[in-house]
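Worked example

This section walks through a single chain of length 337. The input is the sequence exactly as stored; nothing has been trimmed or padded.
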Amino acid sequence: MGDVAVGARSGHDGEEHRGHPEGAADPAARSAVASGSESEAAEDGTVTEHDHSGDQGSGGSTPEARKPRSFWKELPILIGIALVLALLIKTFLVQAFSIPSDSMQDTLQRGDRVLVDKLTPWFGSEPERGEVVVFHDPDDWLAGEPAATPNALQKVLSWIGLMPSAEEKDLIKRVVGVGGDTVECRNTGPLMVNGKALDEQSYVYPGNTPCSVDDQGGQFTVHVPQGYIWVMGDHRQNSRDSRYNQSDKNHGMVPVKDVVGRAIVKAWPINRWGTLPVPDTFDQQGINEQSSAAGALTVAPQGVALTAVVPVAVWRRRRAAKDAAGTGTPTTATGSR
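Given that input, the structure is written out below as tokens.
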């Protein structure tokens, strides 16, 4: 029984694996089985080694590129960004204004477009003599003037700053006097600021005189209070400015808070492009003296009061000391009272 069992086993092994160790046959068999499995998988068309590596590449190192967004889908976004930027620029930086009249000839002509600096006032800058400024109507200066009637599109474009404002009640003039100044016109001129004569030939309309001889306001002497400016048009005989509004609530002055900003550039038409600098006559020596004196007057009452109080206090202290010496009362007690 035992020999038969051994013989059957030996014969079976000897026929199939003669001359090969039993351990060496197992790896070959496993390799054959694996090869067969891979071949079958390839024949089935399910997964091959090439396909597997390709899946890894497409899923990891080389992702599929996204399709570009349609231009028509991006257009509304671009328009929205442009409108927001235009509104911010108009509100905080620069705004365009159209010149509706001849009051600033020849510096500005009817129909010119100017760019107004709105940034510097945010940092506390105030108008200076000689600057051309845009300001809100202080007190019905534009009464009787024809009002513009813009259409809906013009209203939208002006609101966002892509078109000059058409219906806002704004004016444009040249600053002649600031807070503390004394401005004076006698006969035909010259115009005097703090006792200094201005040479205005470079900007006053040809044929006009610096001062107008009339009884409506052309002859004047005014003292500009702090926080206000005195403005005049360059076309002196065709400008309803501070001179002719002295009966309003501000006596012809323009509050600094109503100033929109300084006109810095003539932007349109292109053949009239140019800057709007301050004329040299406003930089002449001594023109600031009156403003300095006015500034000193604001603190003068306190100085006068101090000058009056000190001698009285000294006199009372001396008198109290004498009384104390006569009565024997301590001077410290009397002095403290």
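What to look for: Confidence is low (pLDDT under 50) at residues 1-25, 27-58, 291-315, 327-337.
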